[in-house]
Amino acid sequence: EVTEKLEEVVMIWIKQIRQVLVESEQMRREADDIGPTAELEYWKTRMSSFNSLLDEIKSSRVKKILSILQVARSKTLKEWKELDGNITIAANEAKDNVRYLYALDNFFGLLAKASPVSMMEHVPSLMNTVCMIYTTSPYYNTSERMTSLLLKITNQMINTCRTYLCEG
Fold first, then answer.
1. Which are the contacts of 115, defined by CB distance < 8 A and separation ≥ 6?
2. Which of 26, 46, 47, 99 is a good FRET partner for 19, with 20 to 30 A between their CA atoms?
3. At what angle do helices 2-25 and 76-113 cross, to 10 degrees?
4. How far are the Cα atoms of 6, 7, 8, 52 from residue 1, in angstroms, in the given order?
5. What is the pLDDT of residue 28?
6. Cβ distance 76 to 69 under 8 Å?
7. Residue 74 to residues 3, 15, 16, 54, 78: CA-CA distances in angstroms?
8. What residues contact residue 65 under an 8 Å CB cut-off, 6+ apart?
9. Average pLDDT rounded to a whole number, residues 18-46
């Protein structure tokens, strides 16, 4: 009877974790002119969420319940372990993407504050850094992720030039 109650609790957790994972994989709705800083903020928020979830999963309360279910040879543990692995992957992806995007963070400020002429001085090293991310990141090296990043960088350059022209 205790095992059944604990399995019900774990099944609720599984359902909630699945929901978090599904929501994290859905398409992001963003404004058309959003800049690259938003990309960094998105991944920082996602990293924080998944790290909090991992902390909760590793809490002593959860470990005790899982230990009891392991002794009882509960079938819910197979599903739990799979989701635990998926959360770890999602947390690692977010952490890795934040680390790589921080390499671009200096450029984001330069792009926002520079004149069109001085902005061009930074473009070669910016593109070299983007290339480095593409070639070394295990998660950020997809055409979808790179297209999104380059679009946001371009948006920032356009917004900076627009501001320059309207204020000049």
1. 164
2. 99
3. 30
4. 9, 10, 11, 31
5. 73
6. yes
7. 8, 17, 19, 22, 8
8. 6, 9, 10
9. 85
> What does residue 116 show for φ and ψ, rounded to 5 degrees?
-55, -40
Closest alpha carbon to 109 in 100, 96, 118:
118
- CA-to-CA dists, residue 106 to 13, 38, 51, 93, 100, angstroms: 40, 14, 25, 22, 12
Specify the pTM.
0.84
Q: What is the Cα–Cα distance from 101 to 39, expressed in whole angstroms?
A: 8
DSSP character at residue 114:
S
Contact 52, 45 (CB under 8 A): no
**The token pair that represents 130 in the structure block:** 């983007």
Task: Give the count of beta carbons closer than 10 Å to the beta carbon of residue 135.
Answer: 8
Cβ distance 43 to 159 under 8 Å? no
Tell me, what's the pLDDT at 45?
92
d(CA 65, CA 74) in angstroms, rounded, equals 11
| Residues 92-151: tens digit of each pLDDT | 999 999 999 999 998 988 888 888 999 999 999 999 999 999 999 999 889 989 999 999
